[in-house]
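This week, think about what follows.
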Amino acid sequence: MKRAAKSRTATADTRASAGRDPSEKIANAGALKQAAKSPASAARSGLPAIDRNLVEAAATATAWPFEEARKIIARLERERAAGRTGPRTVVFETGYGPSGLPHIGTFGEVARTTMVRTAFRLLTGDSVPTRLICFSDDMDGMRKVPDNVPNQAMLHEHLHRPLTRVPDPFGEFESFGHHNNAMLRRFLDTFGFDYEFRERHRLLHLRPLRRGAAARRRAL
């Protein structure tokens, strides 16, 4: 689980995905600075409403989450000035490798991204919908056996195998990867994070299904 935390910077943790999904395209990225002066009346996607008293203060805030959020806003404004469509939704991403139980580093990955997302919402007056995706690279190989789990000898027999193909040493889930994904979600839910969870093994399973559906449509 430490690999993602070591390899990512604050900027990488909070990159915005512009137009990755065609359904997220829009014709107008919006006048973001004006929107911050006239904030939207409701929060998006189940998020708590932003504190309107903080919107004005955010305009002059210099803490790093606000600086990172301004980079995203500048990117949207450049896209708009160039006449290109911007994203309908700004997607913030963070991720980890579920090779062990959640810890403070895992918390930090999601907390930092949430800070920048919140800063973006304040600076734009919550006028642009946002999402936070937490990605689990659960097909990563198990490079070592954690010290804080049972059945150490059994796990050593499965070194370097994908985490979703390593038996769960606790005997509760389909695999060690599934177990750690469940623990991470419970961990994040306990702290009230707003996020969407994505698991690599599920995405790989869906890819051939989508290709097959596309091939069938072309054949019609």
